[in-house]
Design brief:
CATH architecture: 7 Propeller
CATH topology: Methylamine Dehydrogenase, Chain H
CATH class: Mainly Beta
Shape: globular
Order of helices and strands: HEHEEEEEEEEEEEEEEEEEEEEH
Strand order of the largest sheet: 1-21-20
Helix content: under 10%
Distance between the termini: 38 Å
């Protein structure tokens, strides 16, 4: 019964996030590491301790949401795309997403409409839906997906392997994650739907259990977080991205970018595994209190708040909320 209640709390918390709650009241400062194409995304991180979401874009562009819903944008600003210089102004934005592969970014307004800017590859900007009522958005390789308030998915952009045209028509999804050419979606019952290109078994190898509370993907590798805080990985095992998945329980969030994956422990410390290029693992900060991780291909942005104590039990409503606070940027800005 306790496990069932904990899983229910996790899913309800996910629905709360997707309704525009960026974190569980745990904003923080931005920390970055790696070796991006434009290093100013790390050297010019905006100061402050009250950011509520971050996103990492291709080439070295950073985005963050302030408490008033305004967008901070800095770093790589490619000529002709204006990824930084044309970022939306004003307040009231509730979510941000950026492609790790292309210079494209998105933001959700308080009415659930979508702002899109940057490189319009495969109509990934001009094809953005114009209606309202969206609750979350993720961006990938020339394509993007948005969740509606009824749990249905809108998809647009690059469709080489059915990543867009194969999007399920159901209306019971709560979260999305993108690998290079495939898509994962988490259902309200904790099961996972997958579509697109089945390279390395990233689709056919998708777990069939129904106790998952979070998903992440990058390249041709995918991950899912169970309600007990354990992690399962499948797909390409290059650089040990599957075989080196941390064991044990009690992890609260997962994220992936490039050839590296990350997990947050209950105290907010970071576990990392996979490829060692770009200092994506060696540069991982020590300490506790991290609440969100947003990886790109060659750098990472994270939010760090106050340290949190280890929970008395592994599965509880409290753990579910901590997990989601850490997972705000986990499915966004990924390939």
């Amino acid at each position: 019964m306790k496990q069932r209640l904990g899983l229910m709390a996790a899913r309800l918390a996910w629905l709360g996030l997707l309704a525009g709650v960026a974190t569980s009241g745990r904003a923080g400062e931005i920390v970055g590491w790696g070796s991006p194409y434009d290093p100013t995304v790390l050297s010019n991180i905006p100061p402050g301790t009250d950011f509520k979401a971050v996103a990492a874009g291709g080439g070295g562009t950073g985005f963050a949401l302030r408490p008033d819903g305004s967008i901070a944008a800095w770093g790589y600003d490619p000529t002709g795309f204006g990824l930084v210089s044309t970022a939306p102004t004003g307040t009231g934005f509730t979510a941000i997403a950026a492609s790790a592969s292309f210079s494209t970014a998105y933001a959700l307004r308080s009415d659930g409409s979508i702002a899109a800017w940057g490189y319009d590859y495969a109509d990934s900007v001009s094809g953005t839906p114009t209606d309202m009522g969206f609750t979350d958005i993720v961006a990938g390789y020339g394509r993007a997906y948005a969740l509606r308030s009824d749990g249905s998915i809108a998809a647009w952009g690059y469709d080489a392997s059915g990543q867009v045209s194969g999007t399920p028509a159901e209306a019971d999804f709560t979260a999305l994650a993108l690998s290079s050419y495939s898509v994962l979606a988490l259902r309200t019952d904790g099961s996972i739907a997958a579509w697109g290109w089945d390279g390395y078994g990233v689709i056919s190898g998708t777990p069939v259990e129904t106790d998952f509370i979070a998903i992440a993907a990058s390249g041709n590798t995918a991950y899912a977080l169970r309600s007990d805080g354990s992690i399962v990985g499948w797909g390409s095992d290059e650089y040990g991205r599957v075989s080196d998945v941390p064991t044990g329980i009690g992890f609260t969030a997962i994220a992936a970018g490039g050839n590296v994956a990350y997990a947050l422990r209950a105290d907010g410390s970071i576990a990392a595994w996979g490829g060692t290029d770009h200092s994506l693992i060696s540069g991982v900060p020590t300490g506790t209190g991290f609440t969100a991780i947003a990886p790109s291909d060659d750098f990472v942005l994270a939010l760090r708040g106050q340290a949190v104590p280890e929970p008395a039990g592994v599965v509880s409503a409290g753990l579910a909320i901590v997990a989601l606070a850490g997972a705000v940027a986990r499915g966004r800005s990924r390939r």
